[in-house]
Amino acid sequence: MKYDVHLYAVMRYKYTGIEAESQTGAIDAAVKLFNADTPPAYPPEFAEDIAYYLVDEEGDEEYARSYMYNDAVHADLFADRDYLVYEPQ
Length: 89
Hints:
This protein is α+β, with helices and mostly antiparallel strands.
């Protein structure tokens, strides 16, 4: 069996010097900058986290056997451990 696996990796963007009344206000301002394609203060970097996975079976043109998995599927992506596989719900 062959699979196409999509890894949804988390990227870190840092915006500096944001003026706001609160931390949540600063988040709102940063999201607006991000959505406006404003370049961050530093280059984006991989946050060493994968949010979730999408697995498609090759030949399944209707994607009837495609499944989304959250990060619980892989206990620790960056350590030499076996990963935990769960049956799709």
